[in-house]
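Letters spell out the chain; the tokens describe the backbone. To illustrate:

===
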Amino acid sequence: MDVMITSSRSPHPGRPLLRTRGAVMASLVAILSGGAITGGLMASAMGDPNSATAERIAAIVPQVDPRTLSGPAYADAAPGTCLTWQVDASDRVTAFTTVDCEEPHRFEVAGRIDLSGVPGFGENTPLPDTTRLAPIGSDRCLPMITRYAGGREVDPAGRFTGLVVPPSEEGWDKGDHSVLCGVAAAELDGRSTTSTGVFAEADQHRRWDPGTCLGFTDEGLPGAPVPCSEDHSIEVVSDVDVSGLFPEEPNPPEPRVQSELTADACLAAGVAYLGDGEALRQTTLISTLVNPISQISWATGSRTVNCGLMRAADPGPFAVLRGSARQGVLIDGSTPVPPTTTEVPPPGVGQGTPGTPTDADPGTVSVPIPGGTP
């Protein structure tokens, strides 16, 4: 009588364990045999790379594309692809992924640049650093972006910048000497930020949401957004459409003229942001144009600017603000002392600051304008 041995570990209850073991052994034999056959085919193909056997090897053992060593998002990126990533505490890029361009993203691909034939980037060269890639960005990538965007240039004074993204070090060492060229949004201090939509249709002029506070660069100029509880130079209060304020000419007005033309609108915006004119007077801040529109941004359709609260300083150009103007702001570490007059000072005018009228021309004021000439 045959003895049937079963086990609860069998994937099919009631099936003989011996038969299950036999199937496993048969599978192992098949796998091992397949490996031996493949090894024989490879040996044969090495003797004749053009043989039918070699073609079969290509199908059985596909060659590894070094580009894939940088991840599928990098490998599959093509013109029009939008990518994003996260940066950890050590400034290392993580979670490099493809996203829809209508979603927040950090990079829009314009094309891929092959550096294998460029002196200094060929075989047996190390992965280039930012300094070595800078000429590639200016000489090759920016023209590629312009062609990709239908003739639209990247505004050097705007919120976008050309960016070159190299492969991983492993991918470069294995032979992928191409880099992605594209456009990315950046803060005033150069840090990467996100944007939505495609570059060819985007407003290049740099502006921020109301309530945003701008920190400082190392030069003491407005920098990237920071919490308003930290030291900052400007608190943004509103957007202003300048379509009816600036003349529709090929070039925008000069920065100082832009400040003058938006003075009334920015004053009204500051009053509305704080609730009334008395609240603005108590802060001793002025509400003025934050960032003038550059020629390239104007030519590509930008017509909206920010107004923001700030104060000129001597030396300056900007006083150090801490705290939101809506909740009690400190100016250079002190509580502001409002003037005795009940009038709200017009933009650019202050006591003992570079914003006071000059002796040479009592009708002009000197207001430090981010991106312009004080």
About this structure: Residues 67-185 form one domain. The chain has nine helices and twelve strands. The mean pLDDT is 77. The chain has three domains: 17-63, 67-185, 208-331.
